[in-house]
Write a structure and sequence with these properties.
The chain has 410 residues and is α+β, with helices and mostly antiparallel strands. The chain contains 17 helices and nine strands.
Length: 410
């Protein structure tokens, strides 16, 4: 084992998650220290190896042999004791944590509506949704997450699923409650009870929606899932319910965080904001730079299917690997001046959407929503600035975003 891994001075456990105040506020100096001193850092408290170098992260994410099913982790590892322990009874993991061949079967059946060409057909409608959300903001000072960044992805996902407008608020409430449970390794009793109640409510809600689509099919995503077939394979009711819930959770929290992080990066860098205002064609590059600079997803997990060595560190089979997307995206060996936010950056590649067979299914949808959201917001509020009321980062492990962010529109 590398000498660095023996250093008791390096942080461990919760100190390396958003549950820690210092890490939550600014994880990048801490991640830089790990990348420099212990690029494969053994976190003994949570039973995982944290990988921080860009090339190691990229290679591991694209290693098709590695597992993601947490039940395959060794006892005492993060995957087995925290992720697998969160599964109820015989519950199967979500597609995000599935291995082949079940992962391939489900991804093939649900992927068509998320391909770039299919998402682009939604762009005009997404733009209209954003205009509708913005039209309801008429106060000079407002909380960005509650009034804008949160509602946009909720409404987009709800409309893609064909959910009636009258249900959108309940939809958002259930989503938030489920997120507070699903991505927190140490939920409170209240969060557990509320999250389980939200899961049951969503299960019943989607079963009713499935029954309604069977009787009255439409051109929405739920109807497409019911029609989906590949080589004789179809989606069961349980498959559809699970995928809808995961889409709701992942699509809401990550896109909300992406929009909030984009606004923050631009307002903290006025020259970049001015450049975008004067040349809106920079929006695609700007969103890619936000994804690199302040990724809404900070980690992605894998489980070793064999004994292996990563950057000189031996790792046994069945161990948990936490690939730090946030650290990889600021590796100075790959990105010149990695801590600088630059929407003119020529090399816009990043690891924010993961990689390999688990590359984020909704990546292009998130891009389109963020692009249109930022352009719409700047057009609606040409003198947008941060409010003295400040902002608060949320404490959701593996995610980075704001729970509250006050801005002034005029």
């Amino acid at each position: 084992m590398a000498k660095e891994l023996e250093s008791s001075a390096l942080p461990q456990g919760v100190s390396l998650t958003a549950l820690d105040a210092a890490f939550r506020e600014d994880p990048y100096p801490i991640l830089a220290r790990l990348r420099e001193q212990a690029p494969v850092h053994e976190d003994r408290e949570l039973g995982r190896f944290i990988v921080t170098r860009h090339d190691d992260v990229k290679a591991l994410l694209r290693d098709k042999a590695l597992y993601t099913d947490p039940r395959k982790g060794n006892p005492g590892t993060f995957a087995r004791d925290i992720l697998a322990a969160a599964l109820v009874g015989e519950e199967e993991p979500s597609m995000l944590l599935m291995d082949e061949p079940e992962h391939r079967r489900l991804r093939t059946l649900v992927s068509a509506p998320f391909r770039p060409a299919a998402v682009e057909r939604w762009r005009d409608h997404i733009r209209n949704i954003i205009q509708g959300v913005l039209a309801r903001i008429d106060e000079p000072e407002f909380e960005l997450i509650e009034r804008f960044a949160g509602p946009v992805p909720t409404v987009v996902i709800a409309e893609m699923l064909g959910i009636e407008v009258s249900q959108h608020d309940r939809f958002k409430q259930w989503s938030d409650q489920l997120i507070a449970l699903s991505f927190n390794p140490f939920p409170t009793e209240e969060q557990t009870a509320t999250g389980e109640a939200a899961t049951e409510a969503l299960d019943n809600f989607f079963l009713r929606e499935i029954d309604r689509r069977r009787r009255q099919p439409g051109d929405d995503l739920l109807s497409e899932m019911l029609r989906a077939e590949e080589d004789g394979e179809t989606l069961s009711e349980d498959d559809i319910v699970l995928q809808c819930e995961r889409l709701l959770i992942a699509g809401n929290v990550t896109t909300c965080d992406l929009i909030g992080n984009a606004v923050h990066a631009l307002l903290e860098n006025p020259k970049q904001m001015d450049a975008l205002r004067h040349d809106p064609s920079l929006i695609n590059n700007a969103i890619e730079e936000v994804l690199r600079f302040d990724s809404p997803v900070t980690n992605s997990g894998r489980i070793t299917n064999r004994s292996m060595t990563v950057s000189g560190c031996p790792i046994s089979q069945g161990e948990s690997l936490s690939t730090s997307l946030a650290a990889a995206n600021r590796d100075p060996e790959v990105y010149p001046q990695p801590d600088m936010f630059d929407i003119h950056r020529e090399d816009t590649h990043h690891q924010a959407f993961g990689g390999g067979r688990h590359l984020c299914l909704g990546a292009h949808l998130a891009r389109v929503e963020a692009q249109e959201a930022i352009l719409g917001l700047l057009n609606r509020f040409p003198t947008l600035e941060q409010s003295e009321r400040g902002q608060t980062r949320h404490a959701i492990p593996s995610f980075r975003g704001f729970s509250e962010y006050w801005v002034k529109g005029c």
